[in-house]
Amino acid sequence: MLILGIETSCDETAAAVVKDGREVVSNIIASQTDIHSVYGGVVPEIASRAHTEAICGVVSKALDAAAVTLEDIDCIAITYCPGLIGALLTGLSYAKGLSFASGKPLIPVHHIRGHVAANYLVHAELKPPFVALVVSGGHTSLLKVNNYTDYDSIGQTRDDAAGEAFDKAARMLGLPYPGGAIMDKLASQGDKNAIKFTVSSVDGAEMDFSFSGLKTALINLVHNHKARTGNAELDECFMADIAASYTEALVRTITSRLRILLERDSSLPIVLAGGVAANSHLRRAVGELADSFGVNHYLPPLSLCGDNAAMIAAQGYFEYISGAAAPLALNAFATKSV
């Protein structure tokens, strides 16, 4: 079975063809990084317009790269939530048009489920149930995946997502957008014990995450340092120490919840997913924690950590066989539980 996946939840216009939810046949991504770098972050209106300009060509390239036509496709999987509403509507409207014109079923896919499904594309043996840790620019969630289409929430962020916290930190340090990969590299050059950042907790919800306090602590540290020294710029060594200490605190905030879960029940594998799953420090920490409990863990390759359509097509396959076809009245949602 061939699934055409389309993803436009943020600033990547993506289309892919996936076979039986496990094999990537083609995967095309048109990035908007250069467009948004001028503004230091994603501008929703500009993102929507860029999707409109790119989507037709991206879908055509995905079909061509797979050496198939739309007639060969069994169904069309589309990200319908969550994300930037204008961006979502662009992709959804296009997918509806394809579905109507071709008579192919329209399959709605939750973006977070898509990130989890990225692991199905590289780990043939991976099957639910398992615990999924999804860490991205807009989401930080700890989930129990009961089967391919049934999820239970264990914990989630109460404010900022981990990816957003990394992006804001990079901006405070004067790093270019997008700052995640640069922060990762800079953190490897610094002393993670140089600055003490507090790991937050959420009163009455020990499995939930909070990153706003960590972000504020960094902002205050940088402002106070500049005021005290009279220097508008931070020296490279100090920046590396900040990046290392900040990364260590952020990663520890995430793994502390995972540790609590494993101490209670270590019978299920751990799956890491999302854009921040590309962070080398988080990947290493999750691996070390899982190994200490004797639990199998799965990581997506770096190429499938960020937003892409292959993961949407993969999850679309499992949604389709569960009977989740949607009418053309399907709407998009900026926020929606998994």
Describe what you observe in this structure.
The chain is of the alpha/beta class. It has two domains: 2-118 and 304-321, 2-Layer Sandwich (Nucleotidyltransferase, domain 5); 128-299, Nucleotidyltransferase, domain 5. The protein is 43% helix and 18% strand. It is built from ten helices and ten strands. The strands form two sheets. The chain has a five-stranded mixed β-sheet with strand order 3-2-1-4-5, sandwiched between helices. Strands 8-7-6-9-10 form a five-stranded mixed β-sheet, sandwiched between helices. A hairpin with a 2-residue loop joins strand 7 (140-147) and strand 8 (150-156). Helix 2 packs parallel to helix 3 (85-102) and helix 4 (111-117) packs across helix 10 (309-321). The longest helix has 29 residues, at 236-264. The mean pLDDT is 95.
CATH second-level architecture of the largest domain:
2-Layer Sandwich
Q: Write the element-wise H/E pattern from the N-terminal end onward.
A: EEEHHEHEHEEEHHHHEHEH
CATH class of the largest domain: Alpha Beta
The total of helices stands at: 10
What is the strand tally?
10
Largest beta-sheet characterization? 5 strands, mixed
Arithmetic mean pLDDT: 95
Number of domains: 2
Distance linking N and C termini: 25 Å
Strand content: 15-25%
Task: Provide a quick synopsis of the model.
With 338 residues, this protein is α/β, with parallel strands linked by helices. It has helices at 33-37, 44-65, 85-102, 111-117, 162-172, 180-187, 212-229, 236-264, 280-292, 309-321, and strands at 2-7, 12-19, 23-31, 75-81, 106-110, 130-135, 140-147, 150-156, 270-273, 297-298. The chain has 10 helices and 10 strands.
